[in-house]
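Appendix B: complex inputs.
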Amino acid sequence: MAQPLSALIPRLREICGDDGVITDQHRRRTYESDGLTYHASTPGVVVLPTSTEQVAAVVRLCAETGVPYVPRGAGTGLSAGALPHSEGVLVVTSRMRRIVEIDVANERAVVQPGVANLEVTRAAAPHGYYYAPDPSSQQVCSVGGNIAENSGGAHCLKYGFTVNHVTGLEIVTPQGEVVRLGGKAADAPGYDLLGAFVGSEGTLGIATEITVRLLRSPQKVRTLLAAFETMDAGGSAVSAIISAGVLPAAVEMMDALSIEAAEAAVACDYPPGAGAVLIVELDGPAADVDAQFDRATRLCREAGAFEVRTADDAAERARIWKGRKSAFAAVGRISPAYIVQDGVVPRTALPEVLRRIAELSAAASGIRVANVFHAGDGNLHPLVLFDDSEPGASERAAEVSGKILDLCIEHGGSITGEHGVGVDKACQMPEMFSPDDLETMDLFRSAFDPDGIANPEKLLPTPRLCGERPGVRKGVHPLVAEGAAEQF
Amino acid sequence: MAQPLSALIPRLREICGDDGVITDQHRRRTYESDGLTYHASTPGVVVLPTSTEQVAAVVRLCAETGVPYVPRGAGTGLSAGALPHSEGVLVVTSRMRRIVEIDVANERAVVQPGVANLEVTRAAAPHGYYYAPDPSSQQVCSVGGNIAENSGGAHCLKYGFTVNHVTGLEIVTPQGEVVRLGGKAADAPGYDLLGAFVGSEGTLGIATEITVRLLRSPQKVRTLLAAFETMDAGGSAVSAIISAGVLPAAVEMMDALSIEAAEAAVACDYPPGAGAVLIVELDGPAADVDAQFDRATRLCREAGAFEVRTADDAAERARIWKGRKSAFAAVGRISPAYIVQDGVVPRTALPEVLRRIAELSAAASGIRVANVFHAGDGNLHPLVLFDDSEPGASERAAEVSGKILDLCIEHGGSITGEHGVGVDKACQMPEMFSPDDLETMDLFRSAFDPDGIANPEKLLPTPRLCGERPGVRKGVHPLVAEGAAEQF
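Resulting structure:
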């Protein structure tokens, strides 16, 4: 049986020091949610360890006493993966923010989990290197959180997800053991638990030291923005580019409604009258980039682009990206409330799924859907817009948002591209996985966490959360906080 | 308690048909080892299923009766990972060799496990695509076996291992359940058990359908061979090339002894007097390849290459690769017996480790070491040469071979680069992993296979195999069969 939390507090203070334990109600409430603010719960107690040993001691204490714990990085997650447990310990890694080593010769960085994503690139840049995974929240999100969520970013079409860039981890298991997975070398014998740990959303333990691959900064980067009259024309440009064997670093698309929002918010000055804009970025050796860039430009024109703008330096690139990067937060300018959805479809299913999304929106009174997405890898981020003062609108928006995920599954895709499952989509896992699939995952989780104390009720569906019937769809709630939306 | 095998035979015949079950002693013996022929054991019974359903029914029968089973693909493995169990069922996937789908639009191939590696590329080539992982045994080794071993190849420096190219699996778990991991999409929610399954050496189940990424055939491929007087000079050329930001598809190095062997065997006509030859292959868009190729050539000359040959078409490339590809088998021409070792060190530790290997060889009477290796990623394949008719020579060779792995561990590397652990290196796992690390792996394995029937005694050390004391080093036996050596 779990002990009451109050009994743990003195021992937590011994481990983390007085200033490393937060019990004050007001201060605890600042941790009540991650970026998905409509799931909230005040943590029982918050600890701020500064070392692997402190993390291990905290977790061992939890294991001994049966008290659940939830790990948290910078709290920018978008699936309530870091939603605190009201009777548990919230383990925040924000004080573990040391860059342990930049190993240029082996092209590796070793960092603590609280280091911000962009800090890795800042530390590597003087040596001509960078860290590739770039979630839009990269200024603030932590590398530890990126590990938990297997974070992507605009450039994962070419460079892959976080899992493709982590070569070694030191972790504290849910039983408080310190275990090493992988290292600096490319491959390790035994089970590749490193790959399984990345994206496990804190349910298998806490990463306390992280070794990542550094990539050479590209010799050249060029970006183009192409404006089309319709989404279909933009989509056929994407297909033509990929089919031609061009591998852009990023291929992003925005529809008319998201362009309208971006114009209202940041005056990004995209070509007037565009039904779709496409941003294509190429990087690599100069000769290669130039050749591919000319090809991509030509293919955009052939697909019907009525205007193509190009950027060759950082300032021009920033102008092109400005609208795209602000799009999520900008939607707040044209709609009182909205839901941000995250799903994936095979790239070839994009045109059909976008048409079906438009039909869903047309059929639901007062609901509009703005589409902003990573077109190259079929990762959609539909924004479901509604007026929360209108009776029934939030329910209709939730229904449209849910049906979009159904469309993704129906077309062989996935209920999340890069935001994770967390609490938010746990009850939808049975729509994607068979009972045998889920049982296998649960067996795996239990092998690490036999007592179920590590981030309970996240990632996999539970009867308490989802009801006894597998596949019960939980209501989706509106996301209205603009602060959270900036993290996309 | 396990049932006697004889009780299972009629039921296996019901599942796989009479011609799908081999009980004849003579025919069973043809399966007694994989490519590492010094580990041998006649399987209790051999089954040749033709479908997922048959595999699942066989495994369920094993699970119900407590009989162990061992999966086998083409049997080209080099760590005795497919060593049969004398009281168990050998499940051979060689009849499951259908290419299910070449999905050009999504750049995926779906195949059965018995399909030969090179067949995937043959099926994709008419569409302008290929399958990247290329173990030297690619003409015969199976994709299912590649999954089990996470196979690499000469080109994994640029393209990664098998795990980087598999996006979906249908597997039969050790309890006989059919489970799907991943799919055609880039990322899936939940635990990335797909990554952990790849390289699990048959201990977590049998892959029955495999979805792999197809890559565009490169526009251009160019290869150079550079001859150096010393290994140090060759090594500094490798460092210079990588430091310059050139990313070759392959960087292979051979020392004087392995060049001598290759000349004796295939008359490859490498530059006379070379103490080291370096093969560098570049692929990609033509403009890029040309620019990088000129750079690599210049860097080789600057590092002291006294001759550089270049190849621009397939015939010229084959001439350059001829010596390298024959090197392992060729060693049989200059030595009565030899051990092939497989280890990894961080690339920067290569010069030091090679010097230490030379010292080990000099100190052991009658033992020579030929070095052939993937220089770009530090994957060594030292060949320990000895005369097995000389008293004590095989023991001294085994000692040198073992000490080479110690060197790899000491320098932050690994006891296997791409051949796997199998039976051969299971007892050395404690030298690389802590008891907590190994316990975590064992917990993971037990979650899939609670009864320990799936490829028992492979991958992790057991008291029966390694003695009660963790870390006991087992003797290494000489590899003398040339047939096996061709599979490198």
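Confidence is low (pLDDT under 50) at residues 469-488 of chain A.
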